[in-house]
Amino acid sequence: DIQMTQSPSSLSATIGDRLTITCRASQGINNYLAWYQQKPGKVPKLLIYAASTLQSGVPSRFSGSGSGTDFTLTISSLQPEDVAIYYCQGYNSAPITFGQGTRLDIK
Amino acid sequence: QPQLQESGPGLVQPSETLSLTCTVSRGSVSSTAYYWAWIRQPPGKGLESIGSIYYSGTTYYNSSLKSRVTMSVDTSRNRFSLKLSSVTAADTAVYYCARLNGYYGVGYLDYWGPGALVTVSS
């Protein structure tokens, strides 16, 4: 199975900051990469698929990039409602696999 | 937009079989465009894929759970199900069903159920 590794595991930032979360696949997965946001006590929500395609309704401050083994999720201007755990998920082959998550909070 | 809802016992005895059903509304499990997936999340931990199923009954299971997992689909009732045998406390988790947008058991999860907490305890 393909392993997905996220960094950092936790992140604390200030409102308005630009920040980046990284996800690395153990082997190349082309652009078959999704990002999810899970707010406390809530269901995971799809943010981005195909590495850089924003899911309908997701604010434009979220963006994704990368291909092959290295991917990034960027929040251009952190908002209070972005406090959550963010997961990447690779889907080049079955089974789909998730990164361990990155916990984001506000300083 | 499809809606998914998990149902099943919230408490399972160790060594028994966990059984959950996901009922889909405003969408069809018979769609040829999607698979239907199960994901779980132990308390305070991350997400783990269990597997997925197509309307035809084709399944893909996570290799770490494969020996204990059975998935099925009931197109007449527009629902799909999960059975996990020989459970232990390590199987205590919130179990989510979701629509997998992709093919051959791979894709991204665009719609999720609210989740069902299943506790394994005597």
Tell me about this structure.
- The complex is a heterodimer of chains A (107) and B (122).
- Chain A has 107 residues and is mainly β.
- Chain A has strands spanning 4-7, 10-13, 19-25, 33-38, 45-49, 53-54, 62-67, 70-75, 84-90, 97-98, 102-106.
- Chain A is 0% helix and 50% strand.
- The radius of gyration of chain A is 13 Å and the shape is globular.
- Chain B is mostly beta strands and 122 residues long.
- Helix content of chain B is 0%, strand content 55%.
- Chain B contains no helices and eleven strands.
- The relative contact order of chain B is 0.32.
- Chain A binds chain B through residues 1, 32, 34, 36, 38, 43-46, 49-50, 55, 85, 87, 89, 91-101, and chain B through 37, 46-49, 51-52, 60-63, 96, 100-102, 104-110, 112-115.
Per-chain topology:
The complex is a heterodimer of chains A (107) and B (122).
Chain A: E1 4-7, E2 10-13, E3 19-25, E4 33-38, E5 45-49, E6 53-54, E7 62-67, E8 70-75, E9 84-90, E10 97-98, E11 102-106
Parallel strand pairs in A: 2-11
Antiparallel strand pairs in A: 1-3, 3-8, 4-5, 4-9, 5-6, 7-8, 9-10, 9-11
Chain B: E1 3-7, E2 11-12, E3 18-25, E4 34-41, E5 48-53, E6 59-61, E7 69-74, E8 79-84, E9 93-103, E10 106-112, E11 116-120
Parallel strand pairs in B: 2-11
Antiparallel strand pairs in B: 1-3, 3-8, 4-5, 4-9, 5-6, 7-8, 9-10, 9-11
- Average of per-residue pLDDT values of chain A: 96
User: Mean pLDDT of chain B, as a whole number?
Assistant: 96
**What is the quaternary state of this protein?**
heterodimer
The overall strand count of chain B is 11
CA gyration radius of chain B, whole angstroms: 13 Å
Q: Would you report the number of β strands of chain A?
A: 11
Count of helix runs of chain B: 0
- How far is the N terminus from the C terminus of chain B? 39 Å
Profile the largest sheet of chain A.
Answer: 7 strands, mixed
Question: What characteristics describe this protein?
Answer:
heterodimer; A: 107 residues; mainly beta; 7-stranded mixed sheet; 4-stranded antiparallel sheet; B: 122 residues; 11 strands; 0% helix; 55% strand; globular
